[in-house]
């Protein structure tokens, strides 16, 4: 047994203060970058450099590894060397009003462009009113009117001459020219007209019709004159308006001459103002309207003048480099932008000024950070993001449009070109699912940066861990840590990694200990954080979360949960399981009993029969059949039933770490050799009897240790573990001291026969050249009993045939 014992020095990887040459972390330089993520960092840097389509980045890793903060930090460093992207504005589309135009321009120019256009429109409105009130305009218009009136008088004179021949005259009224009968060369009065006889009335009607035919061409001349006057006045108005706006338009064109799209828009703007010059004269005549906001709104003038607004969608006037946007709530609208609506008199209406930017707009030309879980949970967000990355453009539309629902009025804004690097942050499982099930994903996210949960515990990384502690002390305002405290944090980091030669890279868990150790140092009135403060923080963290563990240990102590830690029992053995309660994981011993009896060959897993066994545990039980068959059934079949039970277990069991434990119980039951109850066992076994490593070795050992401590130590208690798990031992000081003092023992084995010898004190036995095991060994007793049962069963079968 002694040769399998693990020396106390191997139970923890102690960190020596001689590894460091500083007294406190105050002497250290702050850490730059991230520790222990070389593969992820290289992948991330390569992805950031690649500017080809599809080279977006998926960050894979568990939370707490620094994946989010480092991704944003390195993206920011790249962004700072990149140019500031364009501003984007939406303007009215004069040709297609329902399709607003997008205009891109140099960073900072969008705000100036908006100011230039809108101030120009305001100035034009004021100057047009002034221009149309000017003497020059009035005289030109009067001249046109006089010309019309003179020609109109001449035609009217001719009309009256013709009318006189028929006994009529023409009179101008607000409704146009009307014919009036004459009597004695004067207009007939209404009374005279009403007293006319029927015959006279018919005669007047006939003459009136003849007059109409005679004067038809002259009336057309009057209409032509009116139309000419309208055209001339309109031309005068347009000329007057053009003279006003031409100065401002030329000024704008000179300023924005370098962008074709902007030039085209300004020219279209000029044409539209000229064509709608009358809209700018509203304030000329209606002074009452100025004080009546409701009347103005009702008239529609405000709606019309919205077309001359500029919607500044993306403003980089205060941005110094490429943008980095971390979108924590990636809804459809937060990503793609939205078209908002106003309720006017019960109807929903919108216009291009109601278009709002999304994260894709704000991050365009830079980097967008998203979390996989959040975007996949949002309806339509994931598909819309992929579409934008595939087409390299941002289409703003409302969900109602995408879903085919009808709205009162809608817009289809011109798409904006998209040049962006998306950094998607998630875990490895989600990455595997997306890669397997989403055809677009592998084309759009060609770079995977995988953040590890652990790193090598070499001198370089230990020094970086010390620098990491120093950085946090400086950034957050913690007390400096002395060497002893740094060493204990490093040991704790290895415990979190469950490996003597590794450190955890889930730094969030380490940081929590730093904060709490600082608090305990404060309460201790200490200027620096020492090892006892780190120990206190770890102990208190466990205490805050181990109520369930304490309750279970009390149940073991008072006998509610049956557990023997002394004596020997046949077919009974102490297994070990790991349980979790929130932040705290702990080991719990569990009594496993095995019974063997004549019956149908095979192993009955009671947990599986009642649906309390997971698939991996069930597989482990089947492996036992393979081992027994190979070891003991080469000459005859095993005519034996085996029943295995985890006693007082009321929850699901999974994993194969108890398979070796179950095998020891089977061998004990068949051979009728008792097992020491003072030794608990963990370890997986294969069909060749080789012991395989398991997880949670520290928690399992400490779980049995705590139960033994409550029930009192006898000096022969301990745990058997796989030899491969020795590198995972990071046991608490109390266990190490107990092993050092001989109160507790750890055994490391590589084969099931080594374990059965420790548990029973009986040699397993080695097969000789004739295939026989030495008498008195476990293997001999097992084979002999199985052979005896087979012979007895065969004899009974033969006797029944003879009968």
Describe the structure.
- Residues 285-299 and 605-612 have low confidence and may be disordered.
- This protein folds into four domains: 18-36 and 453-545, Helicase, Ruva Protein, domain 3; 38-83 and 319-451, P-loop containing nucleotide triphosphate hydrolases (Rossmann fold, 3-Layer(aba) Sandwich), CATH 3.40.50; 86-318, no CATH class; 565-794, Ribosomal Protein S5, domain 2 (2-Layer Sandwich).
- Helices cover 49% and strands 16% of the residues.
- The longest helix is centred in the first third of the chain and has 58 residues, at 198-255.
- α6 (198-255) runs antiparallel to α7 (260-275), α20 (507-523) packs across α21 (531-545) and α25 (659-671) crosses α29 (778-802).
- By secondary structure, it is of the alpha/beta class.
Reconstruct the topology from this structure:
Elements lengths: L37 H12 L7 E4 L6 H13 L7 E5 L9 E5 L3 H24 L2 H31 L2 E6 L2 E8 L2 E2 L2 H5 L3 H58 L4 H16 L6 H4 L7 H7 L1 H5 L5 E4 L9 E3 L5 H5 L1 E2 L2 E3 L2 E3 L5 E2 L2 H5 L3 E5 H6 L3 H11 L1 E2 L4 H4 L13 E2 L3 E6 L1 H10 L1 H6 L2 E4 L3 E3 L2 H18 L6 H15 L4 E3 L2 H17 L7 H15 L1 H11 L10 E2 L2 E10 L2 E14 L4 E4 H4 L5 H18 L8 E6 L12 H13 L3 E2 L2 E3 L2 E2 L5 E2 L4 H15 L5 E6 L10 H8 L3 E6 L2 H9 L17 H25 L1
Parallel strand pairs: 1-16, 1-17, 8-13, 13-16, 21-26, 23-24, 26-29, 29-30
Antiparallel strand pairs: 2-3, 2-7, 4-5, 5-6, 9-12, 10-11, 14-15, 18-19, 20-25, 21-22, 22-24, 27-28
Helix pairs in contact: 3-6, 4-6, 6-7, 19-20, 19-21, 20-21, 22-26, 24-25, 25-28, 25-29
């Amino acid at each position: 047994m002694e040769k399998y014992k693990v020396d106390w020095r191997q139970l923890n990887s102690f960190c020596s203060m001689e590894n460091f040459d500083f007294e406190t972390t105050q002497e250290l330089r702050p850490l730059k970058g991230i520790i222990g993520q070389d593969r992820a960092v290289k992948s991330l840097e390569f992805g950031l450099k690649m500017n080809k389509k599809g080279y977006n980045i998926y960050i894979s890793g568990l939370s707490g590894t620094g994946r989010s903060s480092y991704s944003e930090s390195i993206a920011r460093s790249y962004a700072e060397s990149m140019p500031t992207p364009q501003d984007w504005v939406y303007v009215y589309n004069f040709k297609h009003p329902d399709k607003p135009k997008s205009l891109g321009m140099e960073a900072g120019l969008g705000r100036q462009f908006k100011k230039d256009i809108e101030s120009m429109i305001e100035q034009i409105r004021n100057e047009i009113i002034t221009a149309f009130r000017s003497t020059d305009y009035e005289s030109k218009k009067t001249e046109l009117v006089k010309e019309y009136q003179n020609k109109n008088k001449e035609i009217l004179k001719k009309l009256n001459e013709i009318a006189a021949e028929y006994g009529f005259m023409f009179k101008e009224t607000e409704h146009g020219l009307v014919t009036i009968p004459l009597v004695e060369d004067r207009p007939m009065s209404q009374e005279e007209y009403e007293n006319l006889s029927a015959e006279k009335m018919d005669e007047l009607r006939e003459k009136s019709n003849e007059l109409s035919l005679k004067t038809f061409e002259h009336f057309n001349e009057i209409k032509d004159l009116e139309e000419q006057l309208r055209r001339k006045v309109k031309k005068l108005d347009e000329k007057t308006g053009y003279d006003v706006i031409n100065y401002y338009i030329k000024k704008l064109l000179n300023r924005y001459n370098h962008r074709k799209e902007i030039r085209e828009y300004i020219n279209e703007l000029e044409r539209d103002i000229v064509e709608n010059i009358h809209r700018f004269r509203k304030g000329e005549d209606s002074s009452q309207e100025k004080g009546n906001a409701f009347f103005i709104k009702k008239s529609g003038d405000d709606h019309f003048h919205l077309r001359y607004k500029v919607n500044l969608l993306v403003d980089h006037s205060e941005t110094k480099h490429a943008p980095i946007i971390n979108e924590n709530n990636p809804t459809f609208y937060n990503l793609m932008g939205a078209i908002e609506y106003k309720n006017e008199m019960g109807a929903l209406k919108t216009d291009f000024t109601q278009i709002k930017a999304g994260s894709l707009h704000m991050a365009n030309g830079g980097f967008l950070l998203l979390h996989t879980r959040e975007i996949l949970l949002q309806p339509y967000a994931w598909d819309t993001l992929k579409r934008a990355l595939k087409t390299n453009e941002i289409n703003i539309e409302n969900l109602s449009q995408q879903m085919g629902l009808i709205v009162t009025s809608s817009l289809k804004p011109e798409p904006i070109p998209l040049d962006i690097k998306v950094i998607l942050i998630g875990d490895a499982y989600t990455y595997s699912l997306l890669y397997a099930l989403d055809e677009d994903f592998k084309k759009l996210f060609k770079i995977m940066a995988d953040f590890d949960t652990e790193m090598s515990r070499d001198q370089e990384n230990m020094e970086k861990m010390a620098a990491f502690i120093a950085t946090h002390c400086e950034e957050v305002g913690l007390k400096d840590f002395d060497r002893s405290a740094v060493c204990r944090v490093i040991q704790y980091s290895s415990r979190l990694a469950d490996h003597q030669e590794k450190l955890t890279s889930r730094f969030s868990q380490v940081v929590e200990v730093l904060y709490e150790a600082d608090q305990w140092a404060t309460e201790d009135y200490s200027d620096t954080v020492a090892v006892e403060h780190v120990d206190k923080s770890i102990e208190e963290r466990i205490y805050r979360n181990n109520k369930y563990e304490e309750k279970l240990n009390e149940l073991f102590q008072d006998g509610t949960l049956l557990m023997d830690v002394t004596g020997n029992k046949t077919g009974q053995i102490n297994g070990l399981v790991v349980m979790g309660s929130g932040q705290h994981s702990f080991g719990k011993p569990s009594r496993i009993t095995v019974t063997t009896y004549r019956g149908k060959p095979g192993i009955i897993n009671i947990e599986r029969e009642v649906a309390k066994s997971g698939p991996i545990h069930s597989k482990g039980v089947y492996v036992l059949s393979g081992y027994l068959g190979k070891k003991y059934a080469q000459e005859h079949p095993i005519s034996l039933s085996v029943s295995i039970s985890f006693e007082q277990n009321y929850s699901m069991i999974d994993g194969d770490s108890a398979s070796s434990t179950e095998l020891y119980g089977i061998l004990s039951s068949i051979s009728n050799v008792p097992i020491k109850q003072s030794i608990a066992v963990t370890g997986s076994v294969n069909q060749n009897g080789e012991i395989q490593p398991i997880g949670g070795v520290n928690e399992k050992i400490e779980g049995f240790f705590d139960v033994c401590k409550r029930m009192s130590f006898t000096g022969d208690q301990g745990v058997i573990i796989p030899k491969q798990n020795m590198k995972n031992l990071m046991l608490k000081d109390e266990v190490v001291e107990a092993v050092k003092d001989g109160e507790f023992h750890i055994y490391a084995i590589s084969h099931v026969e080594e374990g059965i010898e420790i548990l029973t004190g009986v040699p397993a036995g080695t097969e000789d050249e004739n295939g026989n095991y030495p008498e008195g060994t476990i293997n001999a007793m097992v084979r002999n009993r199985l052979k005896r049962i087979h012979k007895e069963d065969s004899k009974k079968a033969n006797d029944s045939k003879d009968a």
